Fold this protein.
Amino acid sequence: MSVSRLLLLIGALSAAACHPGPIINTGGNDVGGTIAGIVSTEGKVPLPTRKVTVVNKATGEKFEATTGPNGGYTIKVPQGVYHIEVELREGERIAKQPGDTRIQKSDLDPQRDFVISTGRAGGD
């Protein structure tokens, strides 16, 4: 393997290692940009295997991803304005939710983070 090919491979692997979670591509759609974030508890514990859904506010089109081991998700979407939702389980509520996000061509909209609380006050 040539040095230049090795450096290219190392660069690609390094970029993948910094990625917050699985990438879901929209397939044949004209990709406008990327929405990414972390889903965690109030104690900053990552929540893997949570479904995150982004909904295009103009068309109603939905794109989904499942959070990775670090609670991260990444979704490539066409240009537009998106509302972002996360799967909740029994007894949970959203303590922090990102607002709607506008994606332009080649945008990366990171830190679209969710914080989930059990809603239990006083430990009961």
Remarks:
- The mean pLDDT is 80.
- The longest helix spans residues 3-17.
- The chain has one domain: 21-123.
- The radius of gyration is 17 Å.
